[in-house]
Design a protein that fits this description.
Blueprint: H1 3-6, H2 12-48, E1 51-54, E2 62-63, E3 70-71, H3 76-79, E4 95-97, E5 104-105, H4 109-112, E6 120-122, E7 129-130, E8 143-145, E9 152-153, E10 166-168, E11 175-176, E12 189-191, E13 198-199, E14 212-214, E15 220-221, H5 230-241
């Protein structure tokens, strides 16, 4: 016998029951799933909005990618227990507080820690040096206040922080390394302190919004330190128009 002759048409009662199930599914189940997802997103957002203090050993002076892990009394046991190793990169964290006593933020610290959502960092006055690529590619970092006492920003320290709009450089600063702020396309203004003696190659390369620069006399500026900025373009245009 063919499949068509074996098929038994559904009764009106069965069809009505199916329709009721579909209505219940749309009226209760799907909204419940949506509400649950909303609460989950809110929970994750609240976790992400905490201020995290770096948990490092007492006496540590140089923060590296292994000591930058944050500490929170509520979630520390959960995240660091070993049961959830995939949570260890802490990708959602937005705010960090570097403890006082640290003298150097080491090479590629936040880059290697995968801090994709990092928005702000509190750096104590004890920090003298920010290492190579320390905050490189922290694409959600919007502002950074560097403390008095900081002397050196190593090459590529803030490279490709594309949402970095404001940087306060301290008067104690002496050296800005090559490519330190290269590719910071949202940066609009920078004041170079009087104490700076050297601005490295491509320090502000490709900062396409950087039009306002306060540059003290006597500073050793690499030829292409401001290449690709409106400031550089305006300076070249002015030179070309002079008789």
């Amino acid at each position: 016998m063919s499949e068509e002759t074996n098929h038994i048409p559904e009764t009106d009662g069965q069809l009505r029951a199916k329709k009721r199930k579909r209505r219940v599914r749309f009226a209760i189940l799907y909204p419940a799933i949506l509400i649950a997802l909303s609460f989950l997103c809110f929970f994750l957002y609240r976790i992400a909005d905490f201020v995290h203090v770096c948990r490092i050993e007492p006496g540590t002076t140089v923060v590296d990618s292994h000591s930058i892990k944050p500490y929170d009394p509520v979630f520390d046991g959960l995240f660091r227990s070993g049961k959830y190793p995939k949570l260890l990169p802490y990708l959602m964290y937005r705010h960090y507080v570097i403890p006082d006593g640290v003298t150097e933020i080491g090479e590629s610290v936040f880059l290697e820690s995968g801090c994709l959502f990092l928005r702000s960092v509190e750096i104590p006055g004890s920090v003298k040096k920010i290492g190579r690529s320390a905050f490189s590619e922290c694409c959600n970092l919007t502002t950074i206040e560097l403390p008095e006492g900081l002397e050196t920003i190593d090459p590529m320290a803030f490279r490709k922080c594309v949402n970095l709009k404001r940087v306060e450089l301290p008067n104690s600063l002496k050296t800005i390394g090559g490519g330190a702020f290269a590719g910071c396309t949202a940066l609009e203004k920078i004041r170079i302190p009087d104490g700076v003696t050297e601005i490295g190659i491509g320090a502000f390369l490709g900062c396409s919004s950087l039009a306002d620069i306060e540059l003290p006399p006597g500073v050793n500026v690499a030829p292409d330190a401001f290449e690709g900025t409106p400031y550089q373009q305006a300076a070249e245009k002015e030179r070309n128009t002079q008789p």
